[in-house]
Amino acid sequence: MSSKRAMRQAQKQSYAKHRSNITNSKFEFKKKFLTKNKEEKKSKN
Predict the structure, then answer these.
(1) How far apart are CA 39 and CA 35, in angstroms?
(2) Distances (CA, A) of 15 to 6, 12, 33
(3) How many whole angstroms separate alpha carbon 15 and alpha carbon 9?
(4) What confidence tens digit (pLDDT) does each residue in 1-45 have?
């Protein structure tokens, strides 16, 4: 494998990891936020 191709592949992999980290962290934040809201509603009732 040429070094140019290896570099391109490494960049693609790191970018994909970066994107998945962003989506995962957003999802985790939403999940925490939703559970927090549910708990607050329960405590009000």
Answers:
(1) 6
(2) 14, 5, 27
(3) 10
(4) 589 999 999 999 998 888 888 777 777 777 776 666 665 566 655
The residue to which tokens 């549910």 are assigned: 38
- Residue for token digits 């607050």? 40
- Rounded to whole angstroms, the Cα distance separating 18 from 25 reads 11
Q: What is the DSSP string of 1-45?
A: --HHHHHHHHHHHHHHHHHHHHHHHHHHHHHHHHHHHHHHHHHH-
